[in-house]
Design brief:
Layout lengths: L1 H17 L7 H5 L6 H12 L4 H9 L2 H5 L3 H22 L8 H75 L4 H11 L11 H9 L8 H14 L2 H19 L5 H9 L4 H4 L1 H4 L9 H42 L6
Helix pairs in contact: 3-4, 7-8, 7-9, 7-15, 8-12, 10-15, 11-15
């Protein structure tokens, strides 16, 4: 009886060990306690207790799936999120496009056409305003050039007229062989001090031609007037060169009949040399009384006299054209008060 009694507790202990939940038992599937992490901790706490090897082994085997794969449940969440993100991205990549009617397409095309057309007209308007301002400035500058040309023409005509009068006196005195040689000396020396060369200012016109701004002149008659004037004054280059040649010929002939020392004494005096130079008071004689040489000098003075008259005629005509062009430009471009 005692042995049976002794064995009975062992028999009672064995069923208890066998009744412990296993990994593959249906009880573990019914109760989702295995998925809870607190049970793993409880098992670990039991492992630390001084129990038998069987109990420790059974305690370790219960959460084995979780110990071997501790991040299985954690890895599942990013996978699900990535799937959701992929689905949302696919929705954005393939949006549903709403179909438009023909009327809407026509309206959009009309709006685009109107926008392009308005931009074109705005650009043309801007260029027109800029061109008008530019041509206005050029016309102002051209009027200023023409006014300076007129001043030049007038001063040249005055200077040439005085020179022509002195030449007329010299020719008459040498031809008649009068005893007023002092006056002849003084006038001959004065003529050699210089000449009035006409060179109109065509700076604005040349700038308009080089930049192509001349095409902005709106009226043909204005363009023709401008072209006619500057074509005419361009001839002054040739006439001025011819005038220099006539003056050089005159200077080269003076030494044949006039005293060089007396010429030099006259030019040193800045005032009325006829009264201040003593040699002129005594009616000095010519270096040569040869009629052939005197005739050659007179011819040179006649050539120069004729050149001065031609220059005065050209300058007077150019001045008249410049005045007419100024009036025309002021009227057409509203420059009356500028």
């Amino acid at each position: 009886m005692k042995k049976s009694e002794v064995r009975s507790p062992k028999s009672e202990e064995k069923p208890k060990v066998e009744k412990k939940p296993e990994v593959g038992s249906p009880k573990s599937e019914e109760k989702p306690k295995v998925e809870k992490k607190p049970e793993v901790g409880s098992q670990k706490s039991e492992v630390g207790n001084p129990k038998s090897k069987e109990e420790n082994t059974s305690a370790i085997k219960i959460p084995q799936s979780e110990i071997e794969h501790p991040t299985s449940e954690i890895n599942e969440l990013p996978t699900a999120n990535s799937k959701l993100q992929t689905e949302t991205m696919e929705v954005h990549h393939h949006p549903e496009v709403e179909k438009k009617s023909l009327k809407e397409y026509v309206l959009e095309g009309l709006m685009i056409f109107l926008a392009v057309t308005m931009g074109f007209f705005a650009e043309n308007l801007r260029e027109t305003i800029s061109d008008n301002q530019k041509i206005h400035e050029y016309m102002q500058s051209m009027v200023s050039d023409l006014q300076s040309d007129i001043t030049l023409y007038r001063s040249s005509v005055d200077f040439n007229q005085k020179s022509a009068q002195m030449i007329d006196t010299i020719i008459n005195s040498l031809t008649a062989n009068k005893n007023n040689k002092a006056k002849v000396y003084f006038m001959a020396r004065t003529l050699t001090t210089g000449a009035s060369v006409i060179a109109p200012n065509a700076k604005t016109f040349e700038q308009m031609k080089s930049s192509g701004t001349i095409r902005l002149v709106s009226y043909q008659r204005i363009a023709d007037s401008i072209a006619s004037y500057y074509q005419w004054v361009k001839k002054f280059d040739y006439w001025s060169e011819l005038q220099r040649q006539r003056l050089n010929d005159l200077l080269n002939s003076n030494d044949k009949i006039f005293n060089a020392a007396l010429f030099y004494s006259i030019i040193k005096e800045k005032r009325n040399a006829e009264k201040l130079v003593p040699e002129l008071r005594n009616n000095p004689k010519l270096v040569s009384s040869d009629p052939v040489l005197i005739n050659a000098v007179i011819m040179r003075y006649q050539y120069y006299y004729g050149m001065l008259n031609i220059m005065n005629q050209y300058a007077s005509k150019a001045s008249l054209q410049a005045n007419q062009l100024i009036k025309l430009l002021k009227k057409e471009y509203n420059l009356e008060n500028e």
